[in-house]
Amino acid sequence: ATSMGVNRSTLVTALDNLTAAGMIEGRHGGGTYVSGSGWHSMAHAALPNWSEAAQEGWYYPNLPEIQQINQAEFRPGIIRLGTGELAPELMPNEAFNKILQTLSSQTRMLNYIEPQGSLALREALSIHLQSNGIQASPDSILIVSGSLQALHLISVGLLPRGSAVLLEKPSYLYSIHAFQSAGLKLNGIAMEEEGLHLGHLEHAIHTLHSGNDENNSESFPLLYTIPSFHNPTGSVMSCRRRDELMSLARKSGISILEDAAYQELWLDHPPPLPLKAMDQEGRVLHMGTLSKAVSPGLRLGWLVGPVPVIRRLADIKMQTDYGTSSLAQEAAAVWFTDGHHTTHMERLRPELRKRRDFMLELLHRYFHDIAEWATPEGGFYIWLRFTAEPLSTRKLFSACLEADVLIHPGYLYDRLDASHIRLSYAYASQDEMERGLMVLVEVARSLIT
Ligand code: PMP
């Protein structure tokens, strides 16, 4: 807020100066225009300080480590032990090649598309969601450019600035950023094995309602949760905990944003049904994406919710990007209607299971005396905790990066976390896992002793 104040007054002074110098002119009801002659008289005016200007926008920058990760991921030879993305060889490249060829005779893929997204895709998703127990008509679905966009749209289109978002602690790092940059206040709730700690959640809701909190007590209380194969912990909210959460939501009047990015990526047995499937009253907004199980590059996700919410967010989306790529939407519609999705998931699960088991075996071999972890039943992640204290995960991250091994330190997901790293078995090959984990254990041991 301070920087916005400074910006505004700087801008006003600058406008005054430019007006005085004859560079701009004001017109009644018509805004401000640069005047032609002014440019000549100020031909040698100083350039703006772009480095300073680049710090001034209201959106938060990524943490330096995330910026480093985003760059390093594309470095040749890097071993990506933390990447939450399918390895390219696990993606359905051939199927999409075929689908794109069948699309070439159609023209819809080159047009703008209706605000909520391709009707063919929404119809296909409506059917697909039924297999997850969710009844969603096409008009209650919004197609988004990756589910991250749904988080942004909700943050700016549904939640008043300054209102509180309750969420698991730790949580997905870009969700945290989206909420924070939109001026929302985060309220982290501890997790336990079965999922969110409901006692803590109830206490936080109570504090919000009673206005004891500095946050605006009138605001729309929203809980953001990743119940199935949570990012970064890999844990699953039990069926019982989901039931209890839904009754707490009914009792306390909170709404829920369910992030189901990993719902279908079960390896041993399916997780409990999504919260949205248990939602009789329309309290739950539900986000899904093709990014984790199919392809992040398609940038294709969806939001399911009450029609007024979907329409409002569709309207903002039109103003933001005029719609998700029509080509991606048309291809995704065929992906679902022609049965590719089911075939792909059946092939993918054993491959991911193999990678998970291999990584667990290596962890057991190298890390058994310095760390602990749970066996994930799906998703991509192993949330590894170093039991030998003290070990700086900050130093661990930098030293590994120097040795061309990328890990995700736990403090990216919870600023106060000092003992975890997030590992992923979805991206690295078995050979890379072996080499990468050997580097990791060597660096870790050198930091412990
Ligand atoms: N939610 C969660 C929990 C995620 O892990 C991710 C991707 N890492 C996303 C949302 C965003 O995915 P996308 O925008 O690619 O759909």
Give structural notes:
This protein is α/β, with parallel strands linked by helices. β8, α10 and β9 form a beta-alpha-beta unit. The strands form four sheets. The protein has an eight-stranded mixed β-sheet with strand order 4-11-10-9-8-5-6-7, with helices on both faces. Strands 12-13-16-15 form a four-stranded antiparallel β-sheet, with helices on one face. The N terminus is likely disordered. The radius of gyration is 24 Å and the shape is globular. It contains 15 helices and 16 strands. The site of 4'-deoxy-4'-aminopyridoxal-5'-phosphate has 13 residues, from α7.
Task: Explain briefly what this protein structure is.
With 449 residues, the chain is α/β, with parallel strands linked by helices.
Number of helices: 15
**Strand-residue fraction?**
5-15%
- Briefly note the structural class of the backbone: alpha/beta
| Helix percentage | 40-55%
Q: Bound small molecules, which ones?
A: 4'-deoxy-4'-aminopyridoxal-5'-phosphate
Note the topology.
Blueprint lengths: L1 H19 L3 E4 L3 E4 L1 H6 L8 H4 L10 H9 L6 E2 L12 H11 L15 H12 L10 E4 L2 H11 L6 E6 L3 H9 L3 E8 L2 E2 L1 H12 L12 E4 L13 H14 L2 E5 L24 E6 L11 E4 L2 H15 L4 H12 L2 H28 L3 E2 L8 E6 L6 H10 L2 E2 L1 E2 L10 E5 L5 H19 L1
Parallel strand pairs: 3-14, 5-6, 5-8, 8-9, 9-10
Antiparallel strand pairs: 1-2, 4-11, 6-7, 10-11, 12-13, 13-16, 15-16
Helix pairs in contact: 5-12, 6-12, 7-8, 7-11, 9-10, 13-15, 14-15
